[in-house]
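Q: Hi! First time asking for a complex rather than a single chain. Here are the components, and I think there are two in total. Is that enough to go on?
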Amino acid sequence: MDVSALLTSAGINVGICVVLVSLYSILRKQPSNYCVYFGRMLSGGRVKRNDPRWYERFAPSPSWLVKAWETTEDEMLAAAGLDAVVFIRMVICSIRIFSVVAVVCISFVLPVNYYGPMMEHKEAHLEPLSIFTIENLNPRSRWLWVHCLSLYIISSAACALLYFEYKTIAKKRLAYIAASSSKPSHFTVLMRAVPQSPDQSYNETVREYFTNYYARSYLSHLMVYRDGIIQRLLNDAEKMRQAIKHVSPDVSCNPSLKSCNFCAGPGPTNSFKILSDEAGGVQKLELGELTLTTTEEERPVAFVFFKTRYDALVASEVLQTSNPMLWVADLAPEPHDVYWKNLKVPYRQLWMRKIATLVGAVAFMFVFLLPVAGIQGLTQLKTLSKNFPFLRPLLKRDIMNRVITGYLPSVILVLFFYTVPPLMMYFSTLEGCISRSLRKRSACIRVVYFTIWNVFFVNILSGSVIRQLSIFSSVKDLPAQLAKAVPTQAGFFMTYCFTSGWAGLACEIIQPVGLIWNLIARVIVKNQDASYETLRFPYHIEIPRLLLFGLLGFTNSVIAPLILPFLLIYFFLAYLIYKNQILNVYITKYESGGQYWPIFHNTTIFSLILSQVIALGFFGLKLSTVASGFTIPLILLTLLFSEYCRQRFAPIFQKYPAEILIAMDRADEITGKMEELHNNLKAAYSQIPLCSQESSKAGCSPPCSDQELPASEQLKPENLEAEMIKAFQRSKSSHDLEVKSCPGGSPNRYSPGFAEIYKRT
Amino acid sequence: MDVSALLTSAGINVGICVVLVSLYSILRKQPSNYCVYFGRMLSGGRVKRNDPRWYERFAPSPSWLVKAWETTEDEMLAAAGLDAVVFIRMVICSIRIFSVVAVVCISFVLPVNYYGPMMEHKEAHLEPLSIFTIENLNPRSRWLWVHCLSLYIISSAACALLYFEYKTIAKKRLAYIAASSSKPSHFTVLMRAVPQSPDQSYNETVREYFTNYYARSYLSHLMVYRDGIIQRLLNDAEKMRQAIKHVSPDVSCNPSLKSCNFCAGPGPTNSFKILSDEAGGVQKLELGELTLTTTEEERPVAFVFFKTRYDALVASEVLQTSNPMLWVADLAPEPHDVYWKNLKVPYRQLWMRKIATLVGAVAFMFVFLLPVAGIQGLTQLKTLSKNFPFLRPLLKRDIMNRVITGYLPSVILVLFFYTVPPLMMYFSTLEGCISRSLRKRSACIRVVYFTIWNVFFVNILSGSVIRQLSIFSSVKDLPAQLAKAVPTQAGFFMTYCFTSGWAGLACEIIQPVGLIWNLIARVIVKNQDASYETLRFPYHIEIPRLLLFGLLGFTNSVIAPLILPFLLIYFFLAYLIYKNQILNVYITKYESGGQYWPIFHNTTIFSLILSQVIALGFFGLKLSTVASGFTIPLILLTLLFSEYCRQRFAPIFQKYPAEILIAMDRADEITGKMEELHNNLKAAYSQIPLCSQESSKAGCSPPCSDQELPASEQLKPENLEAEMIKAFQRSKSSHDLEVKSCPGGSPNRYSPGFAEIYKRT
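A: Yes, that's all I need. Here is the structure of the assembled complex.
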C-alpha cells in the first residue's frame, strides 16, 4: 500500500464524515426527528421550541459542536451520571496521552525512519508506507537509540497521566457514593441460594435466618417471585376473581378489579397492595388456593433490607454459612438496574453458566477468524486475482485497486464487527448477571478481549501464522513475529482508523437505525406516534473501540508513527460527538458508578506493555542489544506501576469503604432522614408496578435533572407542536402498554419492573 | 536402562531402608537419643521409663510400627492438631487413589503394553524398561481403547475420592474452628498501615479510629514496637535505670530491677507490667526520656481486640477507608504464630517485596537448571565418557554402569534439592508473611511449583528442548513432546522414587542431623545438656514431595504403569513413618487449620489434567483419533469438577463462616466465659514475655495434651534418669537463655515472643 492508496481511503472517509455531520446538523433541527436526536431531553420533559416556517433549520450549522465543547464536567455529571463522565475522561485521557506520543514520535522518530538508508525514495504519492516505519533503518543502526528513548518518554508520560487520572476518578467515585445518600441499594442485600426447607416457605426461612443472626440490624425483606410482571398481574387478577367467587364477602379487604388499569390509575388497587406486601401478608388472607400458589412461586432469592448502610455492607461481605453455595449475599443493585430474569436462575447453575459462556465466547472468536482471513486476502491483490479470474479486468484499473486494497478490507471488518457486541451481551445475559450494569460491564470486557484478539493479533499474524492455525506454536518468538508484522500492517490499521474511527463516529451521530425507523414509522406506516426505543449509552461497544485505537496508537508509536495524527483526530472527534450524544440522545437508567475505569486503565497498561514487547522484538531483529537491554527494565517498571495501581485504587472500585457509609448513616440519623429511607425500601424493590411517584422518588435519580440548557442550544420559538405530541403520547402510553413508544412517554414513570420492557441493552 | 539396572537401584535402596529402619528401632530405645526421637513427649512432660541394664534395647523391634499403625485419627488430632491430620489424610488419599490406579493399570494396561508388537522380547533381566510402556504399541492400534478407558476409570475414581475427602476435611476444619473457642485470635484483628498523624502517636490514632467507627464492638488494642524482645528488655532496663537515677523517688511504682531475671521470676516485675500496658500507660508515668522514646518506637501496626468474634471478623473483611493502602485489617494469627519481625515491615513495601521474591524464585528456578542438566548428562553414558575420557575404564564395568545410570542421577538431584526448601522459606520470609503458618504455606506453594517444574518438566524435556533453553517455543506441540518424553524417562522416575521416596523416608525417620548433633554434643563437646532444637513438622518439604509422587503416578499411569507398585510402597511407608514422626518427634506450635488441603487438592487435579493432556498427546502420536476425541471431554469434565470444588469448598478455607462464630459468641455469652476471654487477650499478644502460666492458658492449646500413650509404647521401667535430666534442663533454661536447649525445656512456658527463638522453621 502506498501513500496514494492511503490518501484515497482518507479522502473517502473525510467526505463521508463531512456529509454525514452536515446532514446531522440539518436533520436534528427537524421537529419530526426530535425523537431520534433528543431522546434525553424529551424524556426529561424539556421541550424544544420549533416553528415549521423557521427555514434556517435547513442550513447546516455548527451550534451543536459549540455546545458540546462548552458543556462542563459538572453539567455532564448532573445530566448523565458518573459513567458518562468516566467515559468522557477516557477520551480526554487518550487525547492527552497521544498528544505526548504524537509530538515525541512525529518530531523524533518519524524523521529518523524516513531518512533511513534501507529504501529508495520515490515520488511523494508513490512512496510505500513502509518507508515511514522502523523497517527503513539498517541493523545495528545507532539511531535506534532515538526509538528506545522515545519509548521511555512515552511510557513515563502514559503512566503519569494514567496515575493522576485513576486518582481523580477514584475521588469522583467516592464522592459519587457519598452523594447518593438516598439510594435504596445501599441498605439492601440480595440474598441468593436460600436453602429449601420441607416445613416452611422460603419467606419464613429468610425471616428466621435474619432475625436469628442479624437481629440488631435486620429490617425486613422481600421475596422474588417466578413470573414476569405482566404475567403475574394477569394471573393474580384471575386468581383474585376466582377467590372472590368462592370466598364469603366478609373478607376485610375488597379487591376491586375494575379500577386496575395497569398502574396508570390514581394508585395501586387493593389486589396489588396485597401482593406487593410479603407473602406472609397473603397468607393472612387465607384465600385457599391463592396462598398455596403464591408460596410455590417464590424463588430462593430475597432482597433483605438493613437498618443502616454499614450493616448491609457487612452482611454482603461476610461468608454466611459453612456451605459457601448457600445464603450467598451481594450488595443489591439499584432497583432500576436489577435484571429480574436472571434473579430466577438457580445459584448453583451460575458457575456452569459462566464456564459455558466462556467456552461459547472462545468458540465464537475462532469462528470469527474466517471473515478476518478473507479480509486479509483482499489486501493481497495477487491472490485475489488468482482465485477470481473474472475480477482481473476490474482490478487492473488503478482506482479500483486503491479502493480494494486501501478501503474495502476495513469496511468489511467493521461490518462483521457489528455482530459482536449483541452476541457478547447475550453471553453476559446467559452468564446470569444480576444487574444490567454488571451485564454491560461483563459484555464490555468480553468485547475488549475479542477486539484486541480479532482486530489486532489476528490481522497482524494472519499473514504468517494463522493460516496454519498454529498461532500458539511459538510463544518465545512472538515479540519478533509481532515486530515483523506490525510495520507491514501499518497501512491497514490506518484505514481501519478511518473507517471504524472517523466514519464510525459520523454514523454514531447520525443514528441511521433510529432515523430510518423514524422515517418508516412516519412515511410508510403513517404512524404519528413516531415510535422509537429509548437508548442507553452503548459502553460495551464504544469503550472497546476506544481501547483498540489506544492499542494501535501505542504499538505503532515508535515503529510506524504515521498513524498518530489520524488517531488524534479520531479522539478529538470522539470527544465532541460522544459529549453531544450523551447530552442529547442517551438516557441514563442505571449506573455502574465509574466501574468502567479499571477496564480502561488495565487495557491501556496492557497496550503499553505490548508495545514495549514489540519494540523489544524489533530491537532484537535489528540486532541492537543495548536498546533491547534498556527496554527490559522499562517493561518491569511498567509492570510494577500496574501492580501499584492495582493495590492502591482497584479495591475502591470493587467495594464500598466502610468509613464513607458510616458517615452517611450518621448524617442521616442526625437529620432524621433514616425513617423515610426505610419506608421507601420495599416499594423501590417491588416486583409489582406500584404508583409511579413513589418509585421514582425511591429509585435512582431521574435521568434528567432540572438543569437548563445553555443558551446556544435554545432552538427556535414555539413549543406548541412538541408539547402536543408529548401530551398525546403520555395519554396514549397511560392507556395501553405499547412498548415502543417515543421517549416522551417517560419510562421512569413506571416502576423498576417496567425497566425490563424498555430494554434496548 | 534395562530391568537389571532398575533392580540394582531398587536393591541398593531396599538395603538402605532396611538398615536405617532397623538402626532406628535400636537407636530410639537409647536414653541418650530421647532428645532426638521423642521431642514431643519430652516437651509434653511425659517421661519414658528406662533402665541402663535393659539389654533388649539393643535389638531391633517393630513395636513403633505397630503403634503408628494403631494410632487413630482422633488421637492424632488431639496430640498434633489438624494440620498433622490433614497431612496424614493426604497420604491416605494418595494410597486410595493409587490403589485404584495400580489395580486398573497393572491388570489391563501393562499386559497390553508388554505384549505389544513393536519390540522384541529379550531375557527377563535384559528387557528394556520401554517394553512396559505405551511405546510398544503400534500406531492406530485397536488396543489404545484400553488406555482410554483406563484413563476414564482413573479420572472418575480420583475425582470421586478427592471430592469426598475435600468434604471430610472441610467438615473437620469447621469442627476445628468451632472447637477452638478459647483462641484469642478470633477476637483480634491485625491492623496494619495505621496512618501517621503529626500531632498524635499511632496509639492515639488507633484508639480514636476505633472508638469512632467501632464504638459498639471495640474493646482495646495493643501497639507493636520496633525492637526485638531481648533488645527491648535490655533497652528498657537501661532506660528504667536512668529514669530512676533522674526522677525523684516518689514515683508511684518503684521498678525493682534486681528481681528481673527474664521471666523466670514469680511474676512480671513492675517495669514489664508498665510496658506491656498500652503506651498511654507509659505516658502517664511521665518519665522524661522514656515516654518520648517509647512513642518513637511504635510501629504503625496494632492488634485490635473486639468484644465478639463476629465483630472482629467484620472488621477484618470490610474495606476500611477510601485509601485501600491505609488501615489494612486482617484477622490476627495465633499469638504463637505471629512472625513479629515482619510486623515491622511497612505495609506499602509489601507489594514490592512480593514481586521481588517472585522474580527471585523464578530466577532461582532457572539457575537450578544447571545441576539438572548435569544429571541428565549422567543418564546418557556416551556423552559422559566422551567428555571425561579418564572415566572410560571405570564405565566399562557393568556394575558401575548400572550404578551410574540407574542410581547416581537421582541421588544427585535429591541432594541438590535439599537446598530448595530453606531458600523458598527465606523468600517467604522476605515477602513479609505476618505469621509462621502463612510463611510455611507460602513456602510450600513455592516448593510445589519448583518441584513440579524442575523435577518433572525439566527432566522430561531436557533431552530435546532445554539444551537450547527454548522450552517456551512450542506450546501447541507440548502434549506430543511430553508424550514422547514421559516413557523415555520412566526409568529415571522409578529410581527417583527409590532414592527420594524410599531412602528419603528412611532418612526422615533416623533424623541424621539431629543424631549427629546429639553425638557431637555428648561425645566431643562432653555437653550433658544434649542440646537439640525442637522441631516443627516440615510441611513445606513433605507435601511437595508427596505431590510430586502423585504427579509421577498420574502421568505414568497409562503410559508406563510399572512405576505404580513402587509408588504404592512409598505411600504405605510414608503413612507409617510420618505418623510415627508426628506422634514422637515434631512439636505443634502453630496451626494453619487445615489450609494445606486446597494445595493438595488443586495440585492433584493439575496432575490429573496433565496426565490426560499427555495421554491426548500420545493418542495423537499413535494416530488414534477416536481415543483423542474421547479424551477431550474428559479434560473438560475434570476442569468442571475442579471449578465446582473451588466454588463449593475453597471459601471455607479462606474465611470463617459467620454462622459458626456467632454461635460460639452466643455460647460464651451464656456460659459467662466471655469476660475471661477478654481479660486474656492483651496478655496473649504481648510482645514482652509475661508470666508463663498466663500466656499458655490464653495461647493455643499446649502442644501435648494429657493424652496417655498406648500400652505398646510404654517402654521399660524407671523414670529417674529422664526426670533428672528434665529437672536439670528446666532449672538451666530458667537461668540462662541458651537457645538450643533440649525440648524438655518446654518452650511453651515462655510467652509467644519467645517462640521466635525456637524457630527452626
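A: The mean pLDDT of chain B is 75. Let me know if you'd like any chain examined more closely.
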